[in-house]
Amino acid sequence: MAEKKKVLSCIQPTGDIHYGNYFGAVKNWVDLQAKYDCTYGVVDYHAMTAPYNPVKLRANTWELIFNLLAIGIEKENLFIQSLVPEHTELCWIFNCFTSYGQLQRMTQFKDKSADTGKGEDGFISAGLLDYPVLQAADILVYRADFVPVGKDQEQHLELSRNIAQRFNQQVGKEYFVLPETLFTETPKIRSTADPKRKMSKSAGEKHYISIFSEEARIRKQVKSAVTDAGDTPKGEMSEGVDNLFTLLKASGKMEAHASLMADHNAGTLKYVDMKEAVGNALVELSTQFKDAKADLMTDKKNIKNQIKYSSSLIRKRAQETLREVKDLAGLINVKAGQ
Ligand code: TRP
């Protein structure tokens, strides 16, 4: 049997997972595990590139690990970036194969250095500029074939390919395969409070629904969802209603979706029914996630150790790449006897 293709993706430990993240990305990560050899990282080194709090960083890293396990990521596939120092070692080597000008021109760097990545005193870290090189190392250290990410990461993927190509050219060998973006059609979830914007944490509490939320809160947020901002052209579905249909479909409630859509087409759709159905669907999912998480939390210490162990096994693959890369790059390698 042919070997499974390798999938790699990473996520920053910035706390909670909301339904936008879930349906837009991490549910896909769960599903990909059936078909590919998947490796998923919680990238705590990346989270240091903007001003941060060390106590919160560690707490968020573990929180995200438990959240990912609760939604169905297998622990063998999961690692914590700072437990695999080869990422940062490869990052240094890659720095020397990366154009400084290209880094300065990255959209994310330009946005973040103008905004969230800046300290109160205007401090912008060199880490923020170097962020995409570390990301390239995350991907290439496992020689991943596919990287499931959203469109906003396409520029970072392009840079990863540029770095791989430049390295290959320099060492005269097609050592790195060029990683491809794995675009999967995932639903784009909007804020229920303001369907004009996407569901996101940065917009504030009412703009996202956490997948671990209490039932009452989920129902309340869905009940108060904006259905029509009054600017929908006649005969068209408003963004708010469209968002509720999207949530229903994403939750796998196809029958309810079909019957409510028939109501909509007949002009008899009652928003209360729609919201009731969406509320039920999300509460059902969240109940599963919360139960799974509560289970994991009873065995917290043991699970943390298992993640440290899986990180150490994943590290062995990274070490193998580093040995070969150092050989090719003309560095001294203890094991290779040079
Ligand atoms: N930059 C990614 C994001 O913000 C996170 C990330 C870091 C990543 N390293 C990665 C994604 C490697 C894919 C592969 O979403």
Compact description:
The protein is mainly alpha-helical and 338 residues long. It contains twelve helices and five strands.
How would you write the strand order of the largest sheet? 1-2-3
Roughly what percent helix?
40-55%
The strand count comes to 5
Order of helices and strands: EHEHEHHHHEHEHHHHH
Tell me the overall shape.
globular
Low-confidence stretches: none
Tell me the number of structural domains: 2
Notable features of this structure?
three-stranded parallel β-sheet, Rossmann fold, 6% strand, Tyrosyl-Transfer RNA Synthetase, mainly alpha
Please characterize this protein's 3D structure.
The protein starts with 5 loop residues before the first strand and ends in a 9-residue tail after the last helix. The chain has helices at 19-32, 54-71, 86-95, 100-104, 107-114, 126-140, 154-171, 215-223, 239-250, 254-266, 271-297, 300-329; strands at 6-11, 37-42, 78-80, 146-147, 180-181. Helices cover 53% and strands 6% of the residues. The chain is mainly alpha-helical and 338 residues long. It has 2 domains: 6-186 and 300-329, Rossmann fold; 201-295, Orthogonal Bundle (Tyrosyl-Transfer RNA Synthetase), CATH 1.10.240. Residues 8-10, 12, 43, 46, 135, 138-139, 147, 149, 153, 156 line the site of tryptophan.
SSE blueprint:
Elements: E1 6-11, H1 19-32, E2 37-42, H2 54-71, E3 78-80, H3 86-95, H4 100-104, H5 107-114, H6 126-140, E4 146-147, H7 154-171, E5 180-181, H8 215-223, H9 239-250, H10 254-266, H11 271-297, H12 300-329
Parallel strand pairs: 1-2, 2-3, 4-5
The structure holds tryptophan.
